[in-house]
């Protein structure tokens, strides 16, 4: 082999290594999603935190501020609004809910206006009028008739 061919092969090998080693997709694929139990346990840490419209910290949460903050504390980013969160993940039927799924409701004139985190046993954790609390998803007085759908983001 000539010196030029050897040099070109060495350069090609170096370029291929750099492309593979420094791909953003490869780096992000290595990031693991949090477990459902980690999300549920994180959310439970904020039980009793007051409801604040537009709130997105433990000083006060609105519904989507609570879900986005909870997931962020476990290393996963969600959009800030309930409507935008509803666009993420895979649709899940109410009968197939698993802990960590996002559950969505229509509580105003918007198609999706409220979000919480399903924790199992027909219960979800969310921030509403009384602050962060656990509520039955089938509460016949309010939540059952307002259920819109669920998304699996984990």
UniProtKB/TrEMBL annotation:
InterPro entries, alphabetized: NLP_P60_dom (IPR000064), Papain-like_cys_pep_sf (IPR038765), Peptidase_C40 (IPR051202)
One annotated GO biological process: proteolysis
Record's signal peptide: 1-21
Highest taxon listed in the record's lineage: Bacteria
Entry keywords, A to Z: Hydrolase, Protease, Signal, Thiol protease
Pfam families, sorted: NLPC_P60
Domain NlpC/P60 stretches: 33-154
PROSITE patterns per UniProt: NLPC_P60
Entry keyword annotation includes Ribosomal protein: no
Entry keyword Methyltransferase: no
One term of GO molecular function: cysteine-type peptidase activity
Similarity section: Belongs to the peptidase C40 family.
Name used for this protein in its record: C40 family peptidase
